[in-house]
Write a structure and sequence with these properties.
This protein has 694 residues and is of the alpha/beta class. It has a domain of 181 residues. The chain is built from 24 helices and 18 strands. α2 crosses α3 and α3 packs across α5.
Length: 694
């Protein structure tokens, strides 16, 4: 028996046990990751190394993730070694028994981790390491193994630390220090529970803007009943059935919402445009901030959307924005770290992974809504401007609790997966609206529900041009060369085709609550409007004048159908022509020279020297009532003739200049004037087309 106070040494030594533990951990990680790495990931690793050399701060961010994962994996070892030292007072001092104790505890720890990881994160690459598949078996295995590890590896360590603490508390200095720590820890939760206001008391109306990614009104027709919560809100709202996005990509579209300017005016011409190139001087959140509003932005994916506090937001909810997100969402799958994401410390530990829909293994829809709900209690004495965007219906339609394949059915089509994702996003919408009601934020409020862009999913009838409605065969040849007609069912995507209404038409609805209910009647408006109109309409609803120089207008009143609206394409990649056939390796090769990592912010941004050539590859379209003039370039061939295409959207009739009767009914003079005023020399290459030469 050991004498009281005698030093306790482990037979094998710390390095011996650490080596055993490290070997087991490396073996498990090697087996789990063996089948998950692929060529695009390997290529991304090479690009990441180059980016770190250009922006050393990015290396620090990636290193933080690695250190956090390492610390989480070593914490069980530290606890177990402490437990061994404490337990040595009660067990036979035999090297064999001590080693068996250690191996049993380690085996139970990893069995618990792998079982719980598979249960909670079924898409983890480590899920295949356990042959069990049903939740009950995984629960029993994980729970039982965890109980054994707690008994062997945690409880003795806690007992030992408690004894040390008890001895320390005999000293007055330690007692005072402990009291101060406990007091500091209790002040904030006690204040939040009893002293902080629980209901919003502000007199100014709350402004809630909820964005739903990759949703066009046509999708609701193809998936009837998939979004009951949304349909309930639309029945009580002013719905604009012919709303357009200025650019069918998230960052330019949301910039248009917040600035009331088209991309050509704001400078947000592409996703990942450097914010220094974007006009953010006058924005909706800044105007409301000046009137005493608390302004909050929430989005559950930041890869292509760098909107942040510079737009006038007090708080931003969601994953951190930066180049590290592109890397870590590919490689961040480690079972211990996965389980750490379930703790309250997930955000500081893994800022680029927590609440990130792009991290398909980890994202849970309810957790993102919970983070927004928690923020509602902050500044409850101020009116609230909340802009929240849900990305769940964006490709690839997979998340932590959703598989690509139903339990007993075949693989789903792209369209079916999108429908499932719409249903899950609808539940998020409902959860957020219920939370807003409970917080008192909808007693006097304006609720805007919109989508940033639609999604082509092979719906042939959504194209504004008809394959049959033309006069000249030469017309069909020229337009067909620009892929104006859907070449096959299954073509999909967004930001690429101005002639497909499924991409360009978006959801836009305003609903008033309390005093604001009179501002927005429950009806449907058929006039053509744009997302640039959101800001002026909200300001008008609040009784405020819009600043000068905005492209948008207040659309509460009936719109002048002679108004001309602008749309344009974003980046188009040859390797990304359809969502069901993405060549990831080719996409990486095609895009890697377009971007750089900003050394100061570590964000991925488009290279300034590539901007002019990318703008020159854009298609542009002008809309006025039932008419559209599309200025089409074949982006893969700069020498291909430009095509000006006039379309009568209700009938699908179109011409490239040969149908004089159709042209006579169109507002060509307004189209020409607005195109020149808005785009200037950008459209000089269309000067010889019929639309500008006649």
């Amino acid at each position: 028996m050991l004498k009281e106070g005698a030093p306790i040494r482990l037979h094998g030594g710390l390095l011996f046990y650490a080596a055993i533990y490290a070997g087991i951990a490396l073996l498990i990680h090697g087996a789990g990751l063996a089948g998950s790495l692929n060529l695009p990931q390997a290529g991304a690793g090479g690009v990441a190394v180059r980016a770190v050399l250009e922006a050393p701060r990015l290396g620090v961010e990636l290193a933080w993730y690695g250190l956090a994962v390492l610390a989480l994996n070593l914490l069980p070892l530290a606890l177990l070694l402490m437990s061994l030292r404490v337990a040595a007072r009660r067990i036979v001092r035999s090297a064999l028994i001590e080693l068996a104790y250690f191996l049993v505890a380690v085996a139970c720890f990893w069995a618990a981790v792998l079982a719980l990881n598979k249960r909670v994160f079924p898409h983890s690459s480590f899920a295949d390491l356990l042959p069990l598949s049903d939740a009950v078996s995984l629960g029993w295995l994980g729970g039982g193994a965890a109980a054994v590890f707690l008994a062997l590896g945690v409880a003795p360590a806690c007992w030992g630390m408690a004894r040390v603490l008890a001895k320390g508390l005999k000293r007055p200095v330690w007692r005072v220090a402990t009291g101060v720590v406990l007091a500091i820890g209790l002040i904030q939760p006690l204040y939040s529970r009893w002293a902080a206001p629980q209901q919003a008391v502000a007199q100014q109306p709350n402004i809630i803007v909820i964005g739903l990614d990759s949703l066009s009104p046509v999708h609701l027709d193809h998936h009837p009943g998939a979004m009951p919560a949304l349909e309930k809100q639309l029945r009580e709202a002013t719905v604009f059935s012919q709303a357009l996005t200025p650019l069918a990509r998230t960052f330019p579209a949301w910039t248009s919402v917040l600035t009331a300017k088209y991309p050509v005016s704001s400078g947000a011409r592409f996703n990942l445009t450097a914010l220094e190139q974007v006009e953010t001087g006058v924005t909706l959140p800044k105007l409301l901030q000046a009137r005493g509003y608390a302004t909050v932005y929430a989005q559950d994916e930041r890869k292509f959307n760098n909107i942040d506090e510079r737009f006038g937001f007090d708080a931003v909810i969601g994953p951190a924005a930066g180049a590290a997100e592109f890397v870590l969402t590919l490689f961040a799958d480690h079972p211990v770290a996965n389980l750490a994401l379930l703790t309250p410390w997930a955000q500081p530990l893994f800022p680029y992974i927590a609440m990130n829909r792009a991290s398909l293994v980890h994202y849970a829809p309810d957790e993102f809504v919970a983070a927004i709900t928690k923020q509602l209690a902050t500044d409850a004495d101020k009116p609230l401007f909340l802009a929240a965007h849900f990305c769940l219906a964006h490709y690839p339609y997979t998340w932590r609790t959703q598989g690509e394949r139903p339990a007993d059915g075949p693989t789903l089509t792209i369209n079916q997966k999108h429908g499932v994702a719409l249903g899950a996003m609808d539940r998020q919408l409902d959860q957020l609206i219920q939370a807003l009601k409970q917080a008192g934020r909808l007693e006097n409020a304006i609720l805007v529900i919109l989508s940033d862009h639609g999604e082509s999913l092979g719906y042939e009838h959504t194209h504004w041009v008809s394959a049959q409605r033309y006069v000249s065969r030469h017309d069909a040849y020229k337009v067909g060369s620009h892929a104006a007609f859907p070449t096959r069912l299954g073509a999909s995507g967004h930001g690429t085709d101005l002639l497909d209404g499924a991409q360009q038409q978006v959801l836009l609805a305003f609903r008033g609550f309390g005093d604001m209910k009179a501002q927005f009647s429950a009806d449907t408006r058929s006039g053509t409007v744009s997302l640039v109109d959101v800001m002026p309409t909200l300001l008008g609803g609040l009784g405020l004048d819009s600043p000068a120089g905005l492209d948008g207008v207040d659309i509460r009143a009936e719109q002048d159908e002679s108004r001309v609206l602008l749309t344009e394409t974003g980046l188009r990649f040859a390797a990304l022509k359809s969502l069901d056939k993405i060549n990831e390796k080719a996409l990486l090769q095609e895009s890697k020279d377009l971007y750089r990592v900003d050394p100061a912010s570590t964000r991925l941004v488009l290279k300034a020297e590539r901007y002019a050539s990318l703008v020159a590859s854009k298609d542009i379209a002008l809309h006025s009532g039932e008419w559209m003039l599309a200025l089409l370039r074949q982006e893969t061939n700069p020498f291909f003739p430009r095509v000006a295409l006039l379309v009568h959207k209700p009938t699908g009739a179109w011409t490239t200049g040969n149908d004089k009767q159709l042209i006579a009914g169109a507002p060509m003079a307004r189209f020409r004037q607005v195109a020149r005023d808005s785009y200037g020399r950008e459209i000089d290459d269309f000067g010889k087309t019929w639309a500008f030469s006649h």
